[in-house]
From TrEMBL:
Organism: Caldithrix abyssi
Upper lineage: Bacteria, Pseudomonadati, Calditrichota, Calditrichia, Calditrichales
Protein name in the entry: diguanylate cyclase
Ranges of residues in domain GGDEF: 201-334
Reactions listed under catalytic activity: 2 GTP = 3',3'-c-di-GMP + 2 diphosphate
UniProt superkingdom: Bacteria
Length: 334
């Protein structure tokens, strides 16, 4: 038996074999013959006078249709159908109508209130019920065909969006350290510079280079070298101030920090604290412990005339730190 897809629940369309419940409103009329016909048609017939009586026995995936009766004396079936409309609008609602002289206004009320899918005149021949069920399934299939197509497209679109996010992340992040990569740096340094020119928002930039990193790779292997890079990156990442500091893997054993709205001395204090944390790292490599330091050059936006200039001045300060013995921070010269 067929059933709707609720996109917001991400439910899948079920085939006919899973939709096996026919709900009968229990009015004054005798319904034993119809219930027997339902069960002989391999469906499960459930009866209830109110929706609340049956709510715990059904779910959105199980109900094929709901049947109610009306005549001039009893229109309670209309509210029963209405309850199922509110529960799941794709459950087919069938109204059995007794042929009476003044029944038309009641039929009109039922159509308006319960959005009836089928009206069947009484009496009903029991053998006709399987035919009716087949019609219900076909009608449902036609009714939901476009929805199924849309759901398939929505699923594909969602998958493409997820892939796009992954590609975007891959394009902007370094896979080893999970820091922003060189491409991200090139984009962001220009944005920081534009803000400095247009809105006078200052920033500082630091280039960090791990000391004697080549000897780590040569002595302990590249796996140990990767562990060192990841450990230092974790220090940078875990000590970023939200909205102020941005850490990048610049390439090889080089990292870059950009800090917004800070002065040169503030940046020096910040990087000094990072250097102190890195010095205290103890990275195991077999029986040995690798101790790490870095050299750093810092330049402030006030000291530079362009993006190229701030990078070059920070880089020259870095090389001065190396020349002076490594494991230290040097500031750019004006």
């Amino acid at each position: 038996m067929m059933r709707c897809i609720h996109l917001y629940h991400e439910e899948k369309l079920l085939d006919a074999s899973t939709r096996n419940i026919v709900v009968l409103h229990r009015p004054a009329q005798k319904i034993a013959d119809l219930k027997r016909a339902i069960e002989e048609s391999k469906y499960t017939g459930l009866t209830a006078k109110y929706f609340a009586e049956i709510a715990s026995k059904i779910n959105h995936e199980s109900v094929l249709c709901v049947i109610a009766f009306i005549d001039e004396e009893d229109q309670s079936g209309v509210d029963f159908l209405r309850s199922f409309l509110e529960y799941d609008q794709h459950i087919q609602r069938i109204l059995f109508v007794r042929n009476q002289p003044n029944i038309f206004p009641y039929i009109l009320h039922a159509v308006n209130r319960a959005h009836v899918d089928y009206m069947v005149p009484l009496p009903v021949n029991a053998p006709d019920f399987p035919v009716l069920c087949r019609k219900i399934v076909r009608r449902y299939d036609k009714m939901t065909r476009a929805l199924r197509k849309f759901t398939e497209l929505a699923s594909v679109t969602e998958e493409l969006l997820a892939q796009n996010e992954k590609y975007k992340e891959d394009a902007t992040s370094d896979p080893l350290t999970a820091l922003l990569n060189r491409r991200s740096f090139d984009s962001m340094i220009n944005r920081f510079w534009d803000r400095w020119l247009e809105k006078s928002v200052p920033f500082a930039m630091a280039i960090l280079d791990l000391d004697h990193f080549k000897s780590v790779n040569d002595t302990y292997g590249h796996t140990a070298g990767d562990t060192v890079l990841s450990s230092v990156a974790a220090v940078l990442k875990n000590n970023q101030r939200t909205g102020i500091d941005f850490a990048f893997r610049y390439g090889g054993e080089e990292f870059v920090l950009i800090s917004s709205t800070v002065g040169l001395q503030d940046m020096q204090k910040y990087v000094s604290r990072l250097l102190s944390i890195v010095r205290n790292l103890k990275i195991e490599a077999g029986d040995d412990v690798i101790q790490v330091t870095f050299s750093c050059g810092i330049c402030h936006s006030e000291q530079a005339s362009s993006v190229k200039d701030i990078i070059e001045k920070a880089d020259r300060a870095l090389y001065r730190a190396k020349d002076e013995g490594r494991n230290r921070i040097c500031l750019a010269e004006v």
